[in-house]
Amino acid sequence: xxxxxxxxxATSYASTKVLTxxxxxxxxxxxxxxxxxxxxxxxxxxxxxxxxxTTLATNAIIERKGARTAFLTTEGHRDVLGMAFENRFEQxxxxxxxxEPLVPRYLRLPIPERISATGKVLVPLELDAVDKAIDIxxxxxxxxxxxxxxxxxxxxxxxxxxxxxxxxxxxxxSVTTSSSVCPEIREYExxxxxxxxxxxxxxxxxxxxxxxxxxxxxxxxxxxxxxxSGGGLMSFVNAARFPxxxxxxxxxxxxxxxxxxxxxxxxxxxxSFDMGGTTAKICLIDEGEPQLSRSFEVDxxxxxxxxSGLPLRIPVIEMVEIGAGGGSIASIDALQxxxxxxxxxxxxxxxxxxxxxxxSATVTDADVVLGRLDPDRxxxxxxxxxxxxxxxxxxxxxxxFLGFETTNAAFGITEVVTENMASAARAHxxxxxxxxxxxxxxxxxxxxxxxxxxxxxxxxxxxxxIPEGAGVGSAIGFLVAPVSYEVVRSRYLRLSRYDHMVVxxxxxxxxxxxAEVLTDSVLSERPKEVVRAFMRYVGQGYEIAVEIDPxxxxxxxxxxxxxxxxxxxxxRLIPGLDIEVMSWTLSLAENKQISIEGHIPAASHLxxxxxxxMYEEGTMKKAVILDRSNMGPDIxxxxxxxxxxxxxxxxxxxxxxxxxxRHGDLVLERLH
Length: 672
Known about the structure:
The chain is an alpha+beta fold. It is globular, with a radius of gyration of 26 Å.
C-alpha cells in the first residue's frame, strides 16, 4: 500500500503492508488505506485518486473458486474447450496434466447457428434452442453465462441476440460475449478468454462494488482506477465488465515501476525480478520498455511449462512467473531431493516463523535460520519472528530426512528456489533471443532483495539495484502507470492486395471503442495513440506485432516495417513470400511523466556495532546490520551485511559492495 504525498511541488511517498484478508479481500485493502493514511497523517477525504491492483481474479481461476458458469456455443463445437490445441507440451511424459476447462462439459450447451468467416449467416439462430439452454442454466443454478459462437469476431449479431434473450429471461445473471471480450480469430483462445471473464465476473463485480462502497465509507469519495495486465489503468466500471484483463494486475505494476526507473536512471538493459510471498516474476526490459504480448497462460499445471495452462488473449506485459516466493513450501521428493513450491503457505497461516499457525517449512523460514532476516525488525517491528519455530520445521521436514544440519538444510532450500528462478530467467531470455549477463538486476517485492545477489551470481550479473520502497514496488508502479486501453480487431489483409480503406475503417472502429471506454477514466491529457498490425508470412502459424502509422500506411511501408521487425527477431527474411495481416490493435494512453526518487540523507549515520550471524560459504559469519533510512551517498560497505527497511531486507554477500546512488537506490556491485 503506497500513498503519494504532494506539497509545494515536492512529491514523497508513505507505505505500509498488511496481510491478505482471504475471507473478505476488500477488508484488507481498506485496512491498508486507513493505516497508511493514519501513519502519514493524511486526512482520508483529501485523497484525490485511488489506484488498485489485485490477484483476486488469478487466484479464483487457479483455485477454481469462480462462478458456476455455462457456455452457449455453436452446435457441434462445445468440445473446443476440451480439445484445446490437440498437442503435447511434454512429448515423452505419458502422465502430463492439463488444467480442466472452467466450464464442465454438461454446461457447454450447443445452439444451432452458423456464421461464415466472412460474416455471412449460413445457419439462422434458433431462439427455441436458446430458451431451452436458459432453462438448463436456471435448473443448474448457473450464475454466469458465456456466449461464444464461431466467427463472431467478424459478425457478432447472433451473440448479441442471445445475450439480449438471456437478460430478458434472467435479469440478475452475469453475461459475457466472446465478441466483446476478445474479437479475434482462433476460437479456442477466444472461448477460453471469454469463459475466464465469465468465470470471475460475478466475484470481481461484487468485490469492486464492495471496495468502492467501503472506500466511500472511509471518506475516500474519489475516482478509482484498476491496474490492468497490460500495464495501464482503467476505471472500476470497465474493470467490472472485463475482469479477465486484471489477471496479471499486480505483476504488471512492478514491471511498469522498473520500466520508469530504467528510463530515468538511463539503464539500457534490465532484468526485473519481483518475488513476493507466493510467486516470482521475471521480466526483460530494454531501453525502458517491457516486452508486450497479446497472449498469456494462467494456471500452468506442469512445472510451470509453457502450453500447460489456460491461454488468454489479453494485452499483457510478457514475463515468466513461477511458484517461488517467501511462503513457498519446501519438501523432500521421491528421489530424496529438496523441492520448493509451487505450493505456498500464503499469508494464512503463513511460514512457521510468523507464529500464526503455519506448520510447513518455507523459504522465509530458511532465510530466518540462515540469519538473513532480523527477527526484531521484520515488517518494521510489527511482527516478531519466531526463530525457534523456523529451526524446528526445517529440521523436521528437511534436515532429518537428508541427515543434514539445520543450517545446511536451510541453505539447500534457498539454493533450490534461487536455481528455479535462474532457470526460468534463462529460458525466458532464450525464448526472446536476449542475453542476461550484460543486464542490471532490479529487485523488488518483499522477498526479492533477500535473494537478488544469489540470483545475480547464478546468472552472471554483476550489478543489482534495489529501489527505495522495494517491498511495495508493484504499488509504486501503479502510480506511474498511464490511464490506457487497448482494443483489438481481426480484419484479414494481404499486402499484395493492399486496401487502405480496410486500414482506415478498422482503425476508426477501434479508436471509437477505446475512447468510449476511457470516458469513465481520469485522463490528465489527450491520450497517445499506438496502432499495431499483427503480421506474418503467408502459410506461417503465428504473427509478430508491427507498430504502424495508419495515416502514412501503404503496402510498401507495411512491408518494410514487417521486414525490419522480423529480421530483428529471427535474424533473417524469407524472400518471395507474400505477407498477411491477421489482426490489428489500437491503444490509447496518457503520456504520464512521474519520477521515482528516494529519500537520501545528507550523510550516513550508521551504527557499525549492530551485527548478527549470517550463513555464508558453509559457515556463520558476522554480518553488519544497516538501517537503509540512515544510508547517505557517502556510504560504501562490503558484505556480509543486511540492509533493513520497512517492508524488506537486502542481503549483501561478502563478494558484493553496497552503495547508494543519487536517486536513493541501493546498488550492489560484485567485487572482482
